[in-house]
Design brief:
alpha+beta, elongated, six-stranded antiparallel beta sheet, 160 residues, single chain, 4 helices
Length: 160
């Protein structure tokens, strides 16, 4: 299968490749663990408690005996009340690195190159998520800054 050359960019289009890298702060990583069997039911019960408290979550992951996700740091006290009695670990000071690139899924190797640079920064990556125009990388704030520092020079021309 051969790849055709993408059409030339038009003046009103954003340039291909990374257009910006930003960090959103103010998140906490939550891990609810040691849930009783059946774990599937216990996970749903825990998530219902969180939802019942009106807490929005992002980056939900199922773990072998629980769930993990991100919440706004300001929601931590309500979250702790909502899941009282559960085994919960909370890591504040998390950030989301947002790597913007139009049609990134259509650019051969772009996502892989971004992830490679992020890993190469030495930061611990907690979560990855993608959309058609951005890649989201969750790390602690120091790691998020290392990832941003690794990607900003790349966004200025080297990675397209």
């Amino acid at each position: 299968m051969s790849h055709s050359t993408p059409p030339a960019e038009l003046d009103f289009e954003k340039r291909r490749g990374i257009s910006s890298v930003e960090i959103r702060t103010g998140f906490a990583q939550v891990h609810i663990s040691e849930l009783p069997e059946p774990v599937r039911t216990s996970r749903l019960d825990a998530l219902r408690k969180v939802a019942g408290a009106g807490i929005s979550i992002d980056f939900l992951k199922l773990t072998p005996y629980g769930v993990s996700f991100l919440v706004a740091e300001g929601e931590v006290p309500r979250l702790e009340s909502a899941v009282a009695g559960s085994t919960v670990s909370i890591s504040p000071g998390m950030g989301v690195v947002m790597v913007h690139a139009v049609n990134m899924r259509d650019e051969d190797g772009l996502v892989a190159s971004i992830v490679s640079h992020a890993i190469g920064s030495g930061a611990r990556i907690e979560h990855l998520g993608d959309m058609h125009d951005r890649l989201l990388i969750v790390s602690d704030l120091a790691g998020a800054k290392r990832i941003q520092d690794a990607l900003v020079p790349v966004s200025e021309g080297a990675l397209r």
